[in-house]
Specification:
This protein is mostly beta strands. The protein folds into two domains: about 130 residues, Jelly Rolls (Sandwich); about 110 residues, Immunoglobulin-like (Sandwich). Helices cover about 5% and strands about 40% of the residues. It contains one helix and 23 strands. The strands form six sheets. Strands 3, 5, 6, 8, 10, 11 and 12 form a seven-stranded antiparallel β-sheet that branches. It has a four-stranded antiparallel β-sheet with strand order 1-13-4-7, with no helix packed on it. It has a four-stranded mixed β-sheet with strand order 14-22-21-18, with no helix packed on it.
Length: about 280
């Protein structure tokens, strides 16, 4: 009788765990993140995929400022995904939904200084693992094994429903069809967001804009295409266009509107040969 009772309790416990476990994937949870960021620029984690999977989402308990979350390949530093987080959301859920390859190491980074929290020193022992993902170390430029930085509830699995995203019309170097870019230049690259029936450029959250890995350094409003509607003209430092290389043929601009609707647009580029 006792054996049957123990078996029943085991089944009940397993069913309880099954029902409370997220249906969309596995979750890694860290300690409370409640200490303000202390001056480092890049905050995040080094993670290794234990199997082919997808990094679905992370919780980002920031200080309410606009930010950009990046997933990078650790071996070469290439940016695989850049997700803007609009200002005013101090407990953002960031949908990444990017495939990870088994045994590959990735960097999960929040890029805005003074916008993060981190956990108590020594609260968590590394590595923290689930069958699909291992947290190897915390990260702020170099691996450091004492703190759980920036992110919580790291979710892996098979996929998320795609959030609504608008198609934006952008114009790099307005007036030029070739859009030449010299990556060694110390100048600025102008990029216009054109108002269309799909997207009113004046509703864009300028703090959320990322163009080829760079944030704008200045912007203004003018009618770029001569249709009588105001557009937004932004300028980016050429040296910060980290997503572009000598083989790039197009560049992507991403961002969010003031009501947090995501958008993206792309235009062709011609990378000038370096002398």
């Amino acid at each position: 009788m006792a054996s049957n009772r123990n078996a029943s309790l085991t089944v009940l416990l397993l069913l309880t765990l099954f029902w409370t476990f997220p249906a969309y994937g596995l979750v890694i949870e860290g300690p409370p993140l409640n200490l303000p960021e202390a001056g480092w620029s890049n905050f995040g984690l080094l993670i290794r995929a234990e199997a082919d999977t997808r990094l679905l989402s992370v919780e980002f308990p920031n200080q309410g400022r606009a930010d950009v979350i990046q997933l990078r390949r650790n071996s070469d530093g290439s940016v695989l995904a850049s997700i803007p987080v609009p200002a005013g959301n101090n407990k953002a859920i960031v949908n990444i939904d990017y495939p990870l390859n088994a045994d590959e190491i990735y960097e999960l980074v929040a890029t805005t200084p003074s916008n993060k929290y981190y956990g108590e020193l020594g609260v968590l022992s590394f590595p923290v693992i689930n069958p699909e993902l291992a947290v190897l170390a915390s990260y702020y430029g170099l691996p450091y094994n004492g703190l759980w930085f920036t992110f919580n509830n790291i979710t892996t699995g098979t996929g998320l429903t795609e959030p609504e995203q608008l198609d934006a019309v952008i114009d790099i170097n307005p007036g030029s069809d070739i859009n030449p870019i010299n990556l060694k230049s110390k100048g600025l690259v102008p990029v216009a967001i054109i108002t269309t029936d799909n997207l009113d450029a004046l509703t864009v959250d300028l703090n959320s804009i990322i163009f080829a890995g760079a944030k704008p350094v200045k912007w203004g409003v003018q009618d770029i295409d001569g249709d009588g509607n105001d557009d937004v003209l932004l300028h980016f430092k050429t040296g910060e266009l980290s997503d572009l290389s000598s083989s790039s043929t197009e560049a992507v601009l991403t961002g969010a509107t003031l009501d947090s609707t995501l958008f993206s647009g792309k235009d062709s580029v011609k990378i000038l040969p370096q002398k």
